[in-house]
Structure formats: structure tokens, C-alpha cells
């Protein structure tokens, strides 16, 4: 099993930015948003798949537009890590690692972060400039509702009833815990390119950490995604998503809003992954870790 290890250290800062304004984008809105998201690069990498990767000085990335991050010192590594048990295989040396397509065209220097450039057409595909990079409202509504188990009962912990998040068109393994503190999670995720029929649909395979009940929760997500509306194609891409208030006013994919600090120059959120697994063929995996 080929592996590509992603270590995602999410620094989520409370964001007061409101993204609730609706309406189609005009030219001025689009240009202002592009200027806000695409920071000056010390190096530009043109990927063979059409993506442009900007190598941006780490303290000039979009997150530092937020007033809460003034004079903020980046913690480059998490305070805790999860021990990894490596199982050696006789064929380990012959396995091909998963990588991001843009990496074949160059690398970003130390002291920078690799950021996939947002283009005008990316913004125009969104319902509005303000909604760009956010989850569609129908997905948010489904994530904020709950259902009971098939037997009509919700689980109880310490004599307290808890409701589980609804699972609509989704397969999930869910661990619900009460009274424990966790430093993070890590998983090997098989890399595929499933078919997405509609341009406004998307599919993911991911780790999703969620704290809080019903429509009052915080969450962190990371894995791979096929999302033609967000990225403009049906390629399998590495992503992250966060929210601090159940998607009400905070949160977005990748680096599309303030509140997320990137530390890596080697991995670009939104970058395409290759190779991908095939039925009855070679299987490829990424190792995704989210550390609190």
C-alpha cells in the first residue's frame, strides 16, 4: 500500500468575518476577492495540470489579514503527535507514493507556503463571491440535523441522551465519546476518483472531528475530495475544512477565508493527487492526521 503522509496542523482562529451576503458577483467584487486571496509570491510554479502554485512568505498568507492574527507567532508543529506503527513489507521499496501533480514542476522554498492560486472563473462558479469556498447551504442543513437510531433510541452516556448526526448519502464510521480529551486523529485513506454526476455535487473521503451537539458545534475535516464547482474539474484533490460555529459565519475549504494558518511548503490545499487506486489494481493511500 503506497502512502503519502500529510500532517495537517490546523490553527483555527476565531473569525468574525460575515459571509452571509447573497447575490451574483460583479466585476469589482471578483477583483477585490482575487486580490484578497492571491498574495504576492516569491516563486510561481506552473503545474502540468493547469494549476498555478504561488510560494508565499509564510507570514503573508491570507490568514494574516485577520486582525486576531496580528503579531501571532506560528507554531510550526503540534504539541502532540500520534505514534505511528509501521509494518514492513517485502514489496515496500517497489511501491509508488501518492503525490500532488504540481510537485513534478517544482517546489517552494523554505519559509514559504504553497498556495493554489484562485482564478476568476473559480469565483464565477460560486453562487456569490461571499459564498465562495463555503459548503453549500443544503449540505450545511443536513450536517446540522440529527436522526435517531433504527431502533428509535438515541445513545445514552452517563444517563444523558445524545443525538447522532444525520448520514444522508454518506458512509461513515462514527466514534462518540463523552468526558474524554483527544489530541487528534490519523487515518490511511484510499485514494479514488469517484464519478460526480452533477456540477453542484461533491464527494469526499476524510477524517472529520466534531465537538458539540446538534447545530452548535466546532469541526475540522481533511482528506480528499472531488468537487467540480469549487475546483473546476473532477480531479481528486487534497482539502481541509473548518468551522467554529456550525457553518453560521465561520469556516471554509482550504485557505479561502481567514482562520486557517498553513505551515507546509510541500503540500498545497486543493492540489490534485496522483496516482489513484483502480478496481482490482494497485491501491494508493494518503495518511491524514489532524492534531489539536
Automatic annotation (TrEMBL):
Coiled coil ranges: none
Pfam families: Neprosin, Neprosin_AP
Domain Neprosin PEP catalytic stretches: 163-292
The keyword Signal appears for this protein: yes
Signal peptide region: 1-23
Keywords: Signal
PANTHER family: ASLB (DUF239)-RELATED (PTHR31589:SF2), PROTEIN, PUTATIVE (DUF239)-RELATED-RELATED (PTHR31589)
Record protein name field: Neprosin PEP catalytic domain-containing protein
Amino acid at each position: 500500500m503506497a502512502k503519502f503522509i500529510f500532517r495537517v496542523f490546523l490553527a483555527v482562529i476565531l473569525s468574525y468575518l460575515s459571509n452571509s451576503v447573497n447575490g451574483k458577483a460583479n466585476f469589482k467584487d471578483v477583483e477585490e476577492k482575487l486580490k484578497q486571496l492571491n498574495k504576492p509570491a516569491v516563486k510561481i510554479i506552473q503545474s502540468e495540470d493547469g494549476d498555478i502554485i504561488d510560494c508565499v512568505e509564510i507570514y503573508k498568507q491570507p490568514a494574516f489579514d485577520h486582525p486576531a492574527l496580528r503579531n501571532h507567532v506560528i507554531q510550526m508543529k503540534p504539541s502532540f503527535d500520534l505514534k505511528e506503527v509501521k509494518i514492513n513489507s517485502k514489496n515496500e521499496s517497489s511501491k509508488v507514493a501518492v503525490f500532488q501533480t504540481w510537485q513534478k514542476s517544482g517546489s517552494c522554498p523554505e519559509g514559504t507556503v504553497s498556495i493554489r492560486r484562485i482564478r476568476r472563473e473559480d469565483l464565477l462558479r460560486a453562487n456569490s463571491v461571499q459564498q465562495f469556498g463555503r459548503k453549500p447551504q443544503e449540505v450545511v442543513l443536513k450536517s446540522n440535523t440529527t436522526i435517531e437510531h433504527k431502533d428509535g433510541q438515541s445513545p445514552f452516556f452517563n444517563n444523558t441522551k445524545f443525538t447522532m448526526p444525520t448520514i444522508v448519502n454518506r458512509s461513515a464510521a462514527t466514534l462518540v465519546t463523552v468526558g474524554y480529551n483527544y489530541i487528534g486523529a490519523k487515518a490511511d485513506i484510499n485514494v479514488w476518483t469517484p464519478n460526480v454526476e452533477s456540477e453542484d455535487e461533491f464527494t469526499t473521503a476524510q477524517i472529520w472531528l466534531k465537538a458539540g451537539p446538534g447545530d452548535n458545534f466546532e469541526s475540522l475535516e481533511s482528506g480528499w475530495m472531488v468537487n467540480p464547482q469549487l475546483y473546476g474539474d473532477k480531479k481528486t484533490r487534497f482539502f481541509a475544512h473548518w468551522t467554529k460555529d456550525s457553518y453560521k459565519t465561520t469556516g471554509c475549504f482550504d485557505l479561502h477565508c481567514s482562520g486557517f494558518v498553513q505551515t507546509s511548503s510541500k503540500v498545497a490545499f486543493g492540489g490534485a493527487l496522483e496516482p489513484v487506486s483502480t478496481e482490482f489494481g494497485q491501491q494508493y493511500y494518503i495518511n491524514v492526521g489532524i492534531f489539536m
